[in-house]
Design goal:
By secondary structure, the chain is an alpha+beta fold. The protein is built from one helix and ten strands, in the order H-E-E-E-E-E-E-E-E-E-E. The strands form three sheets. Strands 3, 5, 6, 9 and 10 form a five-stranded antiparallel β-sheet that branches. A three-stranded antiparallel β-sheet has the order 4-8-7, with no helix packed on it. Strands 1-2 form a two-stranded antiparallel sheet. The chain starts with a helix and ends in a 10-residue tail after the last strand.
């Protein structure tokens, strides 16, 4: 290899070594600072999400299962159950879309934490459409009074007296 070719290869390698950290920095800024002001996160129970935790506590929610159509689900047998959403920055609004089925559960509510301990603001979950056997609901929240600790906002899913009526 002659000197000119070697110089061109060195120049290309230097450019690549400069571009990689710049692209990594841009990706990290976009992921952690959310310059668009909108964060969309999906959790389908099949794989972990960097933004949405699993449902807990374990005694109130059963393990992840798969139905005959290949949909993953988790049964809630005692209310309430919780999940946390990691927020890299503050947001004024939240829109939560739930895909669910109920058995003997007359009322389903979704809420977010507004104070320490067990202070929540709940809204009734009203389905907006069906997808096969599943109901889909959208619940919108104004997060002005949200209690966010360590960049995590806790949500609760509740169906009062679920265990008493043997619902799921």
């Amino acid at each position: 290899m002659d000197k000119d070719n070697l110089k061109r290869w060195h120049k290309r390698i230097r450019i690549i070594l400069i571009i990689i950290p710049i692209l990594t920095f841009i990706w990290l800024v976009n992921k952690n600072l959310v310059p668009s002001g909108k964060l969309s996160a999906n959790y389908n129970l099949q794989e972990l999400s960097p933004y949405i935790s699993r449902l807990y506590p374990a005694g109130r929610v059963l393990g992840v299962e798969k139905d005959k159509e290949g949909q993953y689900y988790q049964s809630i047998i005692i209310d309430p159950v919780y999940f946390k959403v990691h927020l890299p920055v503050s947001f004024q609004k939240a829109r939560v879309i739930l895909k669910y089925q109920t058995r003997n559960a007359p009322l389903l509510r979704l809420g977010y934490q507004i104070g320490p301990e067990f202070q929540y603001y709940f809204k009734n979950v009203i389905p907006i459409r069906r997808e096969g056997e599943w109901q889909v609901a959208e619940v919108n929240f104004n997060l002005a009074n949200a209690y966010i600790k360590d960049n995590k906002l806790k949500f609760a899913i509740s169906s009062p007296r679920l265990d008493e009526i043997e619902g799921e």
